[in-house]
Amino acid sequence: MRVLGVDPGLTRCGVGVVEGSVGRPLTMVDVGVVRTPADLDIALRLHRLEEGLEAAVLKHRPDVVAVERVFSQHNVRTVMGTAQASAVAMLVAARHGIAVHLHTPSEVKAAVTGSGRADKAQVAAMVVRLLRLSAAPKPVDATDALALAICHVWRGGAQNRLLQAMEAAR
Amino acid sequence: MRVLGVDPGLTRCGVGVVEGSVGRPLTMVDVGVVRTPADLDIALRLHRLEEGLEAAVLKHRPDVVAVERVFSQHNVRTVMGTAQASAVAMLVAARHGIAVHLHTPSEVKAAVTGSGRADKAQVAAMVVRLLRLSAAPKPVDATDALALAICHVWRGGAQNRLLQAMEAAR
């Protein structure tokens, strides 16, 4: 399964592509960020982001796009931009017929480190170890996107097996 | 000037097209809502909304798309959907090279009724009068989209004249 993880953001949107399946070693296919200038009109920023994400989807043809589920507990201004960036990611995937799955930050932390309360450094250390990298990709949005993709390979894999078992039992 | 107003929403997204200029009678070109089913995946809802808004933009070729500026004071769940729907509207406009302008709810009320604290009924009554309609379009999202478009014709027109005057004074 090839998963494109998206850590949504307007200024920096993390994109990480991971290939793997439950119980097998994971491979990093690509990682990066799509940046848009803060002084650009919001509509043009969303369009730039769309172009960047579209290019990643066309290049890597993922089976699934995994996006961080946005909550609004945090800073109100940031959340609006994050919600809008995540909308662009979901839209690009849907337009290409690619399944979209959302994972909360604590689901990602739990999947990657074993603890839903892990800090950024612990998540980064596990991403480095699981993908056998020499260092965590910078900026942190890139590493977070890889963590999302890893989370989906494992959680999505478990969900798929459950669905298949339920189908078989009918 | 032809303005396509968008009252953003995932369940009902109001779309209203108004033609006019400052000091001349306004004309309603079209009005309606794009609906997406609440039980559909969020990614697919955003894609349906994109298709609906894209169709409206291609049909009416507006000079400007005016979108309600989303705030997060209100209900947290609703705001996320509204932010995402507004992102889709801005994206569709930007992709077609159409300028996007945002107006706050109180700017719209002030422009249409003269008071930033007007209620829904007052706004609807003024939309009916200004566009010489027999009744306010239903649902209210449709009327609100027309109010946004009217607001932009007047405010945008004033802004443009100011910019032209500043250019001329250089």
Automatic annotation (TrEMBL), chains A, B:
Subcellular location: Cytoplasm
InterPro entries the record matches: RNaseH-like_sf, RNaseH_sf, X-over_junc_endoDNase_Mg_BS, X-over_junc_endoDNase_RuvC
Positions annotated as active site in the UniProt record: D7, E68, D141
Record's catalysed reaction(s): Endonucleolytic cleavage at a junction such as a reciprocal single-stranded crossover between two homologous DNA duplexes (Holliday junction)
Classification via SUPFAM superfamilies: Ribonuclease H-like
Cofactor: binding comment: Binds 2 Mg(2+) ion per subunit.
One Gene Ontology molecular-function label: magnesium ion binding
Ligand binding (Mg(2+) 2): E68
Domain of life: Bacteria
Cofactor: Mg(2+)
Record-listed E.C. numbers: 3.1.21.10
Entry keyword set: Cytoplasm, DNA damage, DNA recombination, DNA repair, DNA-binding, Endonuclease, Hydrolase, Magnesium, Metal-binding, Nuclease
Enzyme class of the recorded protein, top EC level: hydrolase
Signal sequence coordinates: none
Coiled-coil segments: none
GO cellular component: cytoplasm; Holliday junction resolvase complex
Residues annotated to bind Mg(2+) 1: D7, D141
Gene Ontology process terms (BP): DNA recombination; DNA repair
Subunit structure, interactors included: Homodimer which binds Holliday junction (HJ) DNA. The HJ becomes 2-fold symmetrical on binding to RuvC with unstacked arms; it has a different conformation from HJ DNA in complex with RuvA. In the full resolvosome a probable DNA-RuvA(4)-RuvB(12)-RuvC(2) complex forms which resolves the HJ.
Functional note: The RuvA-RuvB-RuvC complex processes Holliday junction (HJ) DNA during genetic recombination and DNA repair. Endonuclease that resolves HJ intermediates. Cleaves cruciform DNA by making single-stranded nicks across the HJ at symmetrical positions within the homologous arms, yielding a 5'-phosphate and a 3'-hydroxyl group; requires a central core of homology in the junction. The consensus cleavage sequence is 5'-(A/T)TT(C/G)-3'. Cleavage occurs on the 3'-side of the TT dinucleotide at the point of strand exchange.
Family: Belongs to the RuvC family.
NCBIfam families (alphabetical): ruvC (TIGR00228)
Protein's UniProt name: Crossover junction endodeoxyribonuclease RuvC
